[in-house]
Amino acid sequence: MVGSICDVLPAAAALLGAPDAFDALGLAERVGDVRRVAVVLVDGMGWHLLPELAADAPLLASVLARQTGRLDELACTFPSTTPTSLVSLGTGVPPGEHGVLGFTVKLPDSDRVLNHIFWRDDPPPTQWQPVATWFERLRRAGLSAGAVLPAHFIGSGLTEAAYRGAKFHATNPDDDYAGRLVDVLAAGPGLVYGYTAQLDTAAHLCGIGSPEWHAAAADVDALLTRLVEALPPDAALLVTADHGGLNVPPAARVDLDADPRLAAGVHAVAGDPRVRYLHTVDGATPDVVAAWSEVLAGRAEVYSRDDAVAAGLFGPVRPEHLRRIGDVVVTCTGDTAVLATDHEPPEVARLVGFHGAATAAEMAIPLITFRG
User: Fold this and answer.
1) pLDDT tens for residues 18-33?
2) CA separation (Å) from 94 to 31, 54, 100, 108, 240?
3) pLDDT at 95
4) Is 3.40.50.970 the CATH classification of the domain at 3-93+131-247+359-371?
5) 141, CA 20 to 30 Å: which among 30, 109, 163, 273?
6) What is the pLDDT of residues 301-337, one digit of tens each?
7) Which InterPro entries match (predicted)?
8) Are strands 275-280 and 328-332 parallel, antiparallel or unpaired?
9) Pick from 37, 47, 231: nearest CA to 134
10) Which one-letter DSSP state was computed for residue 321?
């Protein structure tokens, strides 16, 4: 049975002896007794991208060849987007419980659409995301929990939602990031978390398989190699991702704001191009479901909110989180993307690589385990 991104930190905490932590991934059988655990999330390093990444990544090639470390397949949570996955990682629960239900969501009782990447303190993170993180739980158990993050991440709403409770170690672009991670890991027993966005950025801007993406793969591999080589004997390194991705060609793009059939009855638009949340005018939901189902037949699954929740897309959903989901949920299949040029910044339409939907290319992620 494939595990989930929600299982990673509870399993790491169990290795460290945290109470109420459960090792659903069987990590103890692989690494034995450890006093230190590093968890590194490589944004955008999907399971199905590993063979192509390995061309420029000797360590990943060795992992794929079963010569180094241990490789397992996990699944991220839906939508397969960074804010949702990071909070699922940090809390160990699915999006319906933690409430960070997409890249963007419309605030209930407001026309404002919240972009979780640019979120600061409105709404307050502890109210918007009420679930305790594993960093908090480790600290309450008297165990060390740190996160080595870019300085501009610290203090953001997303960082607080996903990692609150961690002792933050800020880094700048010119810093030796691998060195900082190694130093924090060596400073004492406990959990250390790290994150790199290079690969995902290259995929979005230049496309999966582009020279820039392959260069990012080489940089990520060099980072991971340094961490593996510097692991203390009593340490484990867990490498995972938040989602995969795919390129969307121009012919596969649909602009809802350029098609009156798709715009009819829609009051507000959230989500992202692979998963759209449509908030409808009063009484229009059935007509919107019907119109979108007809126009995007064979290219997307179209649900009412109730049907999407009943299908278990988000896991169990707290009642107070329900209205963060659109009245209509559109999840693309194949390589389709739904743009919203009147609702989003123009740079969204210029992206090459996308993710967010429920395809295997987007949802499957690796877990690579190393022992010092």
Assistant:
1) 999 999 999 999 999 9
2) 26, 30, 9, 20, 17
3) 98
4) no
5) 30
6) 999 999 999 999 999 999 999 999 999 999 999 999 9
7) Alkaline_phosphatase_core_sf, Phosphodiest/P_Trfase
8) antiparallel
9) 37
10) G
